[in-house]
Amino acid sequence: MTPEEFERGAAQAAAFIAAYWSRLQNDPASLSVLSTSKPGEVLGALPDEPPVHGASNALLDELFGKQELDALLPGLTHWQHPNFYAYFPANISGPAVIGELLAAGLGVQGMLWATSPACTELEMRVLDWLAGMLGLPETFTHASGTGGGVIQGTASEAVLTALVAARHRAVRSCRGAGEKPHLTLYASTQAHSSLIKAAMIAGLADSPDDRTHVRLIDVDSELRMRPDALACAMQDDLAAGRTPFFVCATLGTTASTAIDPLREIAAAVRAHAADVPPWLHVDAAHAGAACVCPEFRPMLNGVEHADSFCVNPHKWLLTNFDCDAFFVRDKRALIDSMSITPEYLRNTASDAGAVTDFRDWHVPLGRRFRALKLWMVIRWYGLEGLRHHIRSHAALAAMFESLVRSDDRFEILAPRTLNLVCFALRANDAASKSLLDRINASGRAYLSHAVLPLESGPRFALRMAVGSPNTREEHVRETWRLIQHLADGA
Ligand code: PLP
């Protein structure tokens, strides 16, 4: 493909995307939110063998002219649809997509500062911006000289990285004390499954249910981690000669967006008797984005005591997947656990210790120029634009909550902290589940579910997470009417 052919093809791709976005905004009812594809249907429609001879320019005609790409649309679940309310959002935006295109087109691989200084230094600047925009303490910035942020693929990779750094620090501090320590880690029963997966990858759990090293702490009536239960669990382990080394607090749990009380958790961690307290990681994958608004920042109280913090701009901050911002207070602790320098990576700048090499901040060596898309987003929308984005969703979720409360067939099952409403048909889990199935089968909206451990027992909740950039008041009202209508037949 010549540069001229690329320009033509990219223009066709851009026109295709723009038409898709317009359709999502102006004619969303023409698309089923949840894919209607049956297992194997897309696979079966694709040729078994790759072409021996390339189609060259004819490919563009096949994709765009003969509408081959349109044929893929039924196989998509439309995450940017205004009536997509499932899971947490996976926001995209025009500036982010342009940034992604630029990153791909420039084609640099920023494993070392020396392999593209701009790739590293733009990332440092943008993550310092983001730290300030979220109200994180200066200690989490590169400007502090001691901490800083790095873009990882996902919050799952971030928690694995934090866990490995924590283990390294704990094992080193126990060195000389004789036996290998029996390490223990803590999170609430509502923490994301990526934590246990990280423990499995790190060799600290043989299976999701293995509790040799993992302690899942009880939650209170609002599904937040109980700091007193955390303190007791750490004390029990200490008394038994074990070494608490890692605590994960969640700001915005996946099931209900519960906000763990960070200040009290940090106090429990610091009260820990050992010389080196456990590493405190804060998983704010979804809810952290809301901290661009000062009114949502109280959740950060205590974050100054955290060792690491992560938030996914690829969830609720208009930056397309993948983009997890991972901040550490003490970069040495992280780098010590991840750094390895084979001869072929040595270079003058790294050897002089004068530069940041992000390969030492995460698992992969190679890395894309992901900072470009976040840079584009922040510059295009500005802090105020991003605040508006968050506030409008929180307000729509509040409106939806009041609609649910006004219909006494329904009940709210968990406090709404931001943009997620957990609700159900009164005391009837089977009917709630069947209602959810009918909403999703309608193709007109897509919600997901959670089972919440309430004091009265586990309850099936429908989750309505308002977070698509295309969602407006009329979409939320229309979805509520759909839910009410389908509930009539429950
Ligand atoms: N942490 C929380 C609280 C989440 O809700 C999620 C996903 O929804 C994750 C972690 C995992 O995110 P990722 O897909 O970036 O690994």
Spell out the key features of this protein.
binds pyridoxal-5'-phosphate, 16 helices, 490 residues, alpha/beta, Aspartate Aminotransferase, domain 2, Aspartate Aminotransferase, domain 1, 7-stranded mixed sheet
Judged by helices, strands and strand pairing, the structural class is alpha/beta
Q: How many distinct beta strands?
A: 11
Which kinds of small molecule does this entry bind, naming each only once?
Answer: pyridoxal-5'-phosphate
Gross morphology is globular
Q: Give the mean pLDDT.
A: 95
CATH architecture identity of the largest domain: 3-Layer(aba) Sandwich
CATH homologous superfamily annotation of the largest domain: Type I PLP-dependent aspartate aminotransferase-like (Major domain)
Largest sheet: 7 strands, mixed
Question: Could you give the order of the helices and strands?
Answer: HHHHHHEHEHEHEHEEHEHHHEEHEEH
Q: Whole-number radius of gyration?
A: 24 Å
How do the strands of the widest beta sheet line up side by side?
Answer: 1-7-6-5-4-2-3
Query: Runs with pLDDT <50, length 5+?
Result: none
The number of helical elements comes to 16
Number of domains: 2
**The CATH class of the largest domain:** Alpha Beta
The CATH topology label of the largest domain is Aspartate Aminotransferase, domain 2
**What gap, in angstroms, lies between the N and C termini?**
57 Å
* Share in β-strands: 5-15%
Helix percentage range:
40-55%
